[in-house]
Each structure stands twice: as C-alpha cells, then as structure tokens.
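Chapter review. Work through the record for GTPase HflX before attempting the end-of-chapter questions.
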Amino acid sequence: MFFDRPESGELAILVHLDIYEERGTSDPREFEELALSAGADPVAMLSGARSTPSAKFFVGTGKLDELKNLVHQHEAELVLFNHTLSPSQERNLEAALECRVLDRTTLILDIFAQRARTHEGKLQVELAQLQHMSTRLIRGWTHLERQKGGIGLRGPGETQLETDRRLLRERIKSIKARLDKVRRQRDQGRRSRNRAEIPVVSLVGYTNAGKSTLFNAVTGSEVYAEDQLFATLDPTMRRVEIADVGAVILADTVGFISRLPHKLVEAFRATLEEAASADFLLHTIDAADPERLRNMDEVQKVLAEIGANDIPQLLVYNKIDLLSDMEPRLDRNDQGRPVAVWLSAQKQAGLELLQLAISELVGDRMCQGTAYLSNDMGSLRARFHRANAVLSENYLDDGRCELALRLPEADFNRILAAETISASHIGWVSSGAPTDEQLA
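Structure tokens for GTPase HflX:
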C-alpha cells in the first residue's frame, strides 16, 4: 500500500555521495545553494562515498537507516539528492522514508519553474517538466493502474494511467509546436539584425557569475539581478552604442551549471540559440569563486552541446571587488588582441576596459581609409555623412572631394551597392596615401 505524500514541505535533508564515476563533477556547497534557491530549508546533509550506486535505493542500507533517522529527528518532509535518480529508486526511497524525494534534475526544474517570467520561458520549463514527469507518472499512482469503473465505464478501455500518459503526450506535442513557432520568430529577428549588420554579443557563463549585473551596468537596464542561482531565466537583449563601432546588440542569457539536465538543454534550445548565433561571446566568470576553473570547463561543455564552442570569446573576470589588492585590467595576447578583462560590475569598475575590448574585437569588421569622390558623387558623399563615417573632408585642386572614412565594413559595402558603384571607382585606399594608379 502506498503512503499519502504531503502536499508541500520546506524542511529538507540533503544527500550527497561521492560516486567514483561522478567524482569531481559536483560541489556540495553548490547543491546547498540550489536547495536554498528552490525555497527549501536544509537542516542536515548526509554525505558518503560509494563506488557505484545501489540499484534499489541509490544509497546502501546503512545510509538508508541514517537517512531515516535524520528525517524523523528533524521531522523533514523533503529529501533532496545531488544525483540523478531512476523512477524506481525515487519510488523505493519515498516508500522507505515516507516523505517526498527529489533528485538534482527535478530540483533544477523546480527552480526554473519559479524563475520563468515570459510566455516562452514558461513553455520551455513546462516541456522539460512534462518530459521528466512522463517517466515517473506511475510514482504514487499505483491505484490508478486498474481500468475505470462505474456506470458507462465498465469493460475494455484505457486505464487511468494510460489516459494520463496520453494526455501528457498530447500536451508535449502542443508545447513543441508552439516553441517551434517561437523559434521561427527568433530566426526572423536574427535575420533582421543580420540585414542591418548589427553585431550581436552574448553574455554566457556559469550561473551566479554576475552576468545580469554586468548587463545592467553596460546597458543601463534594470534586469532582475540577485545573488542566487538561476536568477535570470528569460533572455534579454538591448542595443548599446560602442565607441568607434556604433550599435551593438548585447544579449543576457540563462546561466549554465554542472551536469545541466539534457532535457533543459533541449527545451531551452530556442533561447540558447541566441548564444549560438552571436558574433562573439562574453564568457563571464566569478573571479572570486575557488571552483572557477571547473565552472569554465562546464560552460565550454554546454557551448559545445549547442554548437557555440567555435564562436570567439572574451573572458570577463567579474567580482574582483571580492579579491584583495585586485585592480581592473585588460589582458592581451602576443598579437595585442584583448583576451580577458578583470572588472567589478557591482562597483562599476573596469567597464571602460570592457567597452574598449568590445570595440577592438568588433572593430575587426571596420573599414578605415580614404575615398576620392568626383563632382557627380554628391549623393554618395551625403550617405557617408548620414552614416557618421566621415573623419575629415578636404577638396583637391582637381575638384574631387577627399574623405577620410571609418565605418563598419558591411555599411561601407551597402552604401556602395545602393549607389551601384565599386570601391575602385572612388579610389579607395584602406590606409595611407593613394597610389598613382588609383589617382589616375
């Protein structure tokens, strides 16, 4: 006979085992932060080590007895495992402990459900939850395995469990169709930005690295930012002006975490595609986190899973105000290109270095040089002025107008195409003085 599960509970026992196959992939402190982010009140943590999990209870019989004692001692209504449990293990543990048992995946899904604000975000969370629930539907519902009874319902037909599974499948199909529509809308938005040739820079990084605080500091926005895991779930995009570059789209995305459930990566693919389609990534890192190297590796794994690992990255070491004697700085490689910025978004220290680095990296697509326009090219001259591309202007003795220009390469090509003229017809010189051949 299955017990009656309580509807809710906040007092929680945490379970973290050092499994040989998973060694070094998870941090008990991070697990406690996850529990707190979900609204639980951890009262005890049970830890231990095993070479392999027990097939029936995940933990051994000795640890199971310890867990029972902790549950009764603290009157806990919830046990959280920092591992992925099978449906049968969850069912067996709940029967033995007489309280709710959730694994790491379910805990993260619950946090995502609390954080979702937009219609798209709620759909993505619901899809991931339903896909996860579909394998666990039988848990606590064994009394529904029999077929429906009552007047007009006797005889062959669906069991209640089969009905629930069918309804789940239909709901999952419906959500996927709606998310496909969202994905098409996002694709249309990206195509519009590509036509406008506006560079897109995406903030990526481990959860709670300070991406939203940095986003707010750079854009002047008021995106929700809090010192908790997964404070940001829905992507936000803002247009910012960068010196010597012009308009740039900055995108704030959901944070990554170690062993991010694959169902979430799949469900949030439409959102994560914003990172996969960016021109380059600002990989934001908590400089004060002792586990920052491990976190950086986890971010790279997720980027590889969504096909974004080949996009150029700028490392942004945030929270340097938590380090002693650390000043903002910009690191460059042997070629002089920016590779890392050390700053504090909270204190707004070093933001000018970040803007300089973005300007230089996006500036690789800039055209700078001199054009020589004849008297009949007045409309072309006007287009360059409207694009704020003219650095200086001078008229030569032969009547031609000498323009020193700097503008994005795409804008340069688009202006020439609009006037149906080529660079050779304006004597374009990318730098320095024009050659005799171009002046002829």
